[in-house]
Amino acid sequence: MAEVIQNKKLKTLQVNPIKLSQPMGATLAFLGVDGCMPLMHGGQGCASFTKVYFTRHYSEPIALQTTAVTDVTAILDGGDYSIVEAVKNIHKKVTPELIGLYTTGLPETKGDDIQGVASKIDCPLVYVNTADYEGGLESGWARTCKALIAQLTRARDDIDDSKIALLPHVSLQPLEVEKIRDFVEAFGFRMVAVPDLATALDGHLGEKQAALSSGGVTVAEIADLASSSIVISVGASMLESAQTLLNKNPFIRHWHFPHLNGLIAADELVKKLLDETGFSAPPAPIERWRKRLQDAMLDSHFSLGQTRFLVAGEPDHLAGLSASLYEAGGKIAVAVASVDSPQLSCIKADKVLVGDLEDAASLAMEYDLVLGNFHCEMLAHKLGKAAITRGFPNWEQIGNQLKNDVLYEGGAYFLFECANTATYFRELQGHKPEQTA
């Protein structure tokens, strides 16, 4: 296990942060519900930034409304008026299947009672407290998932043996959620993901620009989620959401995976599915992809074994990417997490930091290739390192929603990309022209 260094005890501020806010995580989670209108209870600038942020990352229009709280209205209003008026304004234009009400730092500091306000609103609404002065993207998503289940899912005492619920962590891209669903359904099950970006922000061409979130899990499916025979949680951040669903039905069983990256994690999922179905072997395409990943591990081993990696991002994402590289011989020199998490103690890295990109820059001599978001790529260019972009945000490349690093198929492509980037950069460094005075 790695030593987890809590830099937050040593630094009074983040200089070059990779941390993202809880309201941003909540926004993304509500966008994974079909026909939902995310309603951010906070300043107009907070909503505008979040809207632009995800629009640039996904190259898609983002449905988002705000209560437009100011410092004056925050003092004079207990939150009730601005929330009720915002809901009225939404219904003047559209008829959402659900309104997702969540907070920012200003109303949380003031102590607005959004639960009390929600009880007075006569329309489908889920509320969640997501102060932006604590937690991060990962916890904002997880809290919202927990709220969706707690407030919408009906208690049951019967199960559908063919139905499985998936609770994915925030860093799983839409295609990765789809690949996990296809993988499980190949064994004869039916899967419902909460939240589900696979059909919402997957980059499909719709008939017209929608004013509400389009695609994703339906409110009816969330309400009936407790009929699942099994709940699969992916990432430590999703454990509380899984427990909330288990409380709705004592007969649901729980399969937890810290991540689904690499050979070992995919094998564990296959083993559970084989035990559950009684199949003698996985479906042929899955078995074939396993062999391809094994070959990819051999082919990439030489290059990855010579490369020292810096990995930066959300804890659940770090755990998966690091495991995939470690299995193929890659050396994780430094892992920089945005926030603290139980996941960090399990990452096989020389150093695990809870910090920012200033910390990463101070350790520049310890790694060769940077794996992280768009801001990490800029850091790599400044330090003269190789870079691969993963996580939020990525404003330089299009097609982020269709990147896949999970299970056998995604794992093979991920190792190829890392090995090819490392090899190219090493050759480039070895053929630099001599500098003249």
How are the secondary structure elements laid out?
Elements: E1 4-6, H1 22-30, E2 36-41, H2 44-58, E3 65-66, H3 71-76, H4 80-93, E4 98-103, H5 105-110, H6 114-118, E5 125-128, H7 137-152, E6 160-167, H8 174-185, E7 190-193, H9 219-223, E8 228-234, H10 239-246, E9 253-257, H11 262-277, H12 284-305, E10 308-313, H13 315-327, E11 331-337, E12 351-354, H14 357-362, E13 369-372, H15 374-383, E14 386-389, H16 407-430
Parallel strand pairs: 1-12, 2-3, 2-4, 4-5, 6-7, 6-8, 8-9, 10-11, 10-13, 11-12, 13-14
Helix pairs in contact: 1-7, 7-10, 11-16, 12-16
Summed up, what is this model?
It is built from 16 helices and 14 strands. It has 437 residues and is an alpha/beta fold. Helix 1 crosses helix 7, helix 7 packs parallel to helix 10 and helix 11 runs antiparallel to helix 16.
Let me know the average pLDDT. Answer: 91
Number of helices: 16
How many discrete domains?
Answer: 3
Radius of gyration: 22 Å
Order of helices and strands: EHEHEHHEHHEHEHEHEHEHHEHEEHEHEH
Architecture (CATH level 2) name of the largest domain: 3-Layer(aba) Sandwich
What's the N-to-C terminus distance? 47 Å
Oligomeric grouping of the chains = single chain
